[in-house]
Amino acid sequence: MPTLWLVVLLFALAAVGFVLGRSRALATAGGDARALHSLPTYYGLNVALSALVPALGVLAIWVLAQPILIETRVSGMIPDELIPEGTTRGLVMSDVRRVADGLDEAVRQGSLTKSEADNLRSDATDVRARLGEVGVALGSDVRPEVLTAAQQFRRMTTTGNIAMIVVIGMLAAGGLAFAYTRTNKDFRARNVVEQGVLALLILAASLAILTTVGIVLSMLFETLNFFKLHPWTDFFFGSTWAPNFRGDSELSILPLLWGTLYISFLALLVAVPIGLFAAIYLSEYANRHTRAFAKPLLEILAGIPTIVYGLFALLTVGPALVKVFGRGEDGLLGVDWMTGATSVLTAGVVMGIMLIPFVSSLSDDIINAVPQAMRDGSLGLGATKSETVRQVVLPAALPGIVGAVLLAASRAIGETMIVVMGAGAIAKFSLNPLESMTTITTRIVSQLTGDTDFASPETLVAFALGLTLFVLTLGLNVLALYIVRTYREQYE
Amino acid sequence: MTETSQSTENGRKPHGGSLMTLSKRTARRNAAEKRFQIYGIAAIAVGLLMLIILVSTIVSRGVGAYSQTFVTLQVELLESKLDKSGTRDLEKIKKVSTFGYAPLIKNAFSVKLEELGIQSELSAKEQAAILSKSAPAQLRDYVIANPDKIGETIEFRFLANGRVDGYMKGRVSRESIANDKSINAEQLDFVDILVVNDVIEKTFNLDFITGADASDQRPEAAGMGVSMIGSLFMMLVVLALALPIGVAASIYLEEFAPQNWLTDVIEVNISNLAAVPSIVFGILGLAVFINYMHLPTSAPLVGGLVLTLMTLPTIIISTRASLKSVPPSIRDAALGVGASKMQAVFHHVLPLAAPGILTGTIIGLAQALGETAPLLLIGMVGFIASNAPDSLASGLMSPNSAMPAQIYEWAKRADPAFYERAWGGIIILLVFLITMNTVAVILRRRFERRW
Questions:
Q1: Is this complex scored with an ipTM above 0.90?
Q2: In the beta sheet, which residues pair with residue A251?
Q3: Among chain B residues, CA nearest to A416
Q4: Collapsing DSSP states into helix, strand and coil, what is residue A432?
Q5: Which of B101, B233, B303, B355 fits B136 for a cystine, CB–CB 3.0-4.6 Å?
Q6: pLDDT per residue as tens digits for the range A400-434
Q7: Which of A311, A317, A407 to probe by mutation at the B interface, max B CB count within 10 Å?
């Protein structure tokens, strides 16, 4: 882990810089801090930051860029005709990486010397067996061009790491020296340091943009790869979801979307009435004590991790529903409509429970924002409290409540653990809530866990699903915000 | 009377009766009012009932994981089986596999039965089968650690088999094992006899809290300890990254940002990120940290990075709220005595906002601690987290599980004995969450200043 040590070294250098800068500033002022432009600390900070920040920044970029550069260079060395039928360049490159890692491991464990690893020849040594000894299992025998590429890969990585240490070290030392020489009693250290800190603050704030860009780009690239391997018409307009690893999968999002929307609809059917009535009661009827008691308790439901709800669905609600709707004569209703514990109803009900506090606390805020004068006016005209709520308060709060429901819907669509554990794995169009169905998030999890091959459409489809999910939830959120902003009644 | 006749002339029916009696219309309206209130009460009652059901299910089904059935036996460590040469050469002792230890356990059973004067029709193999499959390994570990004890008779506490444990806890009955090949009714009778004679007892199970996950064959040996360490390392990463970055971003947005398009873009992004489904962050982690940067799969470092990105919006939103609540007069006073804007913020506003920031951070961490979905994608499930990491670097980089991922893993396994473990794990997870939230509430109560 040379990078980690490099970072530690940089921080140590910065600490030294701090002491040096501070003492030099004091020395130029003849030991009298009043003669300095800034407080002595700022001179120290200036030197420390000049040593640390540029070096760390370049280090971050280097760590990100080096693998791609090496990858493209090494990948370019393998001629097209040497890539076997039925595989891709990406697969060969992953072999190369594995062999290179294996050689590293062998050198680390001492079963190969450094020069042996560099000069190994696949016709002279059984590389696979040698690597097997140190615990690196390879799928097939190592072909000569893969071995050469792997050795080249190692060589370039080593060179790159050495170059990185040298460049970063020089940059840090240079920054330190530059700031140190500039340090004298008239240097405006505070202004410089504050500008630097401001730049860092902006950088931290921009991370939000970077994350969004990262999300979109990472999914977009893989989605494009997916559409190169699989027709987009099938993805958007097909009717079947049937992945298989023989290569003739049908991967359509529509059945998954149906399952997702159906479960979300059931969840909202549970959460919206309960949440809304709870909010109305708490804000219009309940006295202070009831409110102080019931509101936090309801909000506990929102703080429970989704894995708990998932387990609850799988092991408690599902079997309970089977007891009611299944088992034929042994069941409570004597019917045999439900066979397994996983079903749309199971997931929908549990997700509804999870969303109750979400709907109720959002609606509560919105109802409380309706001015008291409107209630007083309505009550003064002789309306009862419930008439006031229905005819005055709710219409005034309606845009906000619609926004809250849309936000809850977006939560329901993106929810993962409850549907992974409670909804089942069968993709189909059906109206029967007692059947098990599958959702977008469930399929993302199942396509991306276990042994995945990032060159097959069956794996890459998960990225297309993820992007659709992202767009869907983002759209709902934007719509919710838009409705709230546009139709909100302006009081005061 | 004139008024009444007037209204009759206008074509309207007289109200009839006095004000003291309720008209039908009023009664209807009052009934509607009552109904409306009842709906509200019912809604709250349903919500609270769900909470009660949820909590009581967790407690009633999870509490079993904290007690465990043990079998106490005196095992004679026969020299003839373990160290034929008699040289106490550790290499030679290590050559004896766990199969070599199985006869010792069978012997111990027959000795014990003789001592108690019990006749059993079970074969020695069936008797030994009431122990966990880990029993021979436990013996072997002991012998390798203490080779000088070979030849002596030592008392051991072995874990009972998962089925026997289930029988002791009432989960397994004679009816339910009718089709179960791993245990039969005679063995349960045998267990009953041993219970009467104090050979088998059920005690508190510390190993569940401190131990590691076991293979999917041995639910009785599975514990949460190692995955707790995995969660701890992830939280360290989240704390080390999300707190400074989140506070820096909030300070910029709240105190320095000019009103321009860049600020708008950042604000919109933060509010959107807060609403992005957690699984999308998992996809991001898989694509960027694992496929692109080649960080190790299943490493707490990667989990921590993903959770950092997920928690940042929460921390930024709460930090901004607490920065906003510091009155402008504090800033003005600092600027008035000659501080720079940066000094005013860092020396005066930030310390005053610190309790609020801390509260928000703890709540964000609690949220991250319970998050599962992104961890599934970066591979923190599907393997046995059996070894506790020995250093900080290996804690961050070597594969581990996390508490919620471990619970999910148990819930997926076929043996129902693991479900008890999963519920038990949830109790631990909830204890952590409740503690963190309580600390947050106490901090807020204790240090919050109203201006």
A1: no
A2: A241
A3: B373
A4: coil
A5: B101
A6: 899 999 999 999 999 999 999 988 888 888 888 88
A7: A311
